[in-house]
Amino acid sequence: MKLLPPAPLGQTPVRAMTIAGTDSGGGAGVAADLRTMALAGVHGCVAVTAVTVQNTLGVSGVHTIPPETVAGQIRTVVTDIGIGAAKTGMLATGAIIDAIVDVAAEVGIGRDRPIPLVVDPVCASMHGHQLLATEAMDSLRERLIPIATVVTPNLDEVALITGITVVDQDSQRAAAIELHSMGAQWALVKGGHLRSSPFSPDLLYDGETFLELDHERIDTPHDHGAGDTLASAMCCALAHGLSVPDALRFAKDWVTESIRWSYPLGAGHGPVNPLWRVSEPLPD
Ligand SMILES: Nc1ncnc2c1ncn2[C@@H]1O[C@H](COP(=O)(O)OP(=O)(O)O)[C@@H](O)[C@H]1O
Ligand SMILES: Cc1ncc(COP(=O)(O)O)c(N)n1
């Protein structure tokens, strides 16, 4: 696959920021984002929104960060370090979403602004634990999605946000049209949960053209952090100045390789694994 150009040693690399929750098991959230950013050659900055008590079996606790502390992390990084793109993951509450939207307007993050924004609208963990309060759905729909350069829901999130149940290509297209009409510049409807398909088809739409990426489906239970990995790889590519379709092409190759080399961990679902970038092939 084609990789992003690395910075020469000693020179400042491209920077990107993840605005997300932590996963103590290291599989999803901030850990997944920083792993992908580092291995893609990008300096990752962090605004933590929530601390989760989480392992490979599930989430047993959540501690949310005060909204002004979330906004402060974003403001202090953008005004000093500078970032080429940002992504959001788990945001926990409506007040945190509102604080992010306000500071994004202040520092120039979002569609039609200098810093593109990938919105991964995380609502629940793969184990079914709620990661976004029900009361936050209005802020997500009415405030965050309208400033997204690209919004990247999985099929469960599509159903919660739009009310559309995706079962085939027609309903996937209808969902992309609805998400775009909510104000996102691009809508990416991920097909990882479309288990009836031999592929894992992701559909990208900008109000005019549909781009469908049909990569092979890999048969594994170890896909924890796949959505975060795709969104943070897109964020890295956007930080490098790639277009949204090219960022998706890079990110889709990246996540497919990372799912191919995912590994067992604990007693539940292991993580997708971008460490393929730095690992040795198995001896013959
Ligand atoms: N088993 C799989 N094989 C190949 N690609 C997959 C598989 N599962 C998910 N993907 C891809 O990983 C990315 C994340 O997808 P998805 O599982 O839909 O989101 P999430 O992790 O947010 O639930 C998408 O690009 C999707 O197509
Ligand atoms: C902190 C945090 N962020 C995001 C996810 C979603 O990832 P997954 O769908 O693989 O559980 C998660 N479980 N935890």
UniProtKB/TrEMBL annotation:
Coiled-coil intervals: none
Keyword Nucleotidyltransferase appears in the UniProt entry: no
One protein family per Pfam: Phos_pyr_kin
Molecular function terms from GO: kinase activity
Keywords, comma-separated and alphabetical: Kinase, Thiamine biosynthesis, Transferase
Location of the Pyridoxamine kinase/Phosphomethylpyrimidine kinase domain: 23-273
UniProt pathway: Cofactor biosynthesis; thiamine diphosphate biosynthesis; 4-amino-2-methyl-5-diphosphomethylpyrimidine from 5-amino-1-(5-phospho-D-ribosyl)imidazole: step 3/3
Catalytic reaction annotation: 4-amino-5-hydroxymethyl-2-methylpyrimidine + ATP = 4-amino-2-methyl-5-(phosphooxymethyl)pyrimidine + ADP + H(+); 4-amino-2-methyl-5-(phosphooxymethyl)pyrimidine + ATP = 4-amino-2-methyl-5-(diphosphooxymethyl)pyrimidine + ADP
Entry annotated with the keyword Chloroplast: no
CDD domains: HMPP_kinase
Function comment: Catalyzes the phosphorylation of hydroxymethylpyrimidine phosphate (HMP-P) to HMP-PP, and of HMP to HMP-P.
PANTHER family documented for this protein: HYDROXYMETHYLPYRIMIDINE_PHOSPHOMETHYLPYRIMIDINE KINASE THI20-RELATED, PHOSPHOMETHYLPYRIMIDINE KINASE
Annotated protein name in UniProt: Hydroxymethylpyrimidine/phosphomethylpyrimidine kinase
Species lineage: Bacteria, Bacillati, Actinomycetota, Actinomycetes, Mycobacteriales
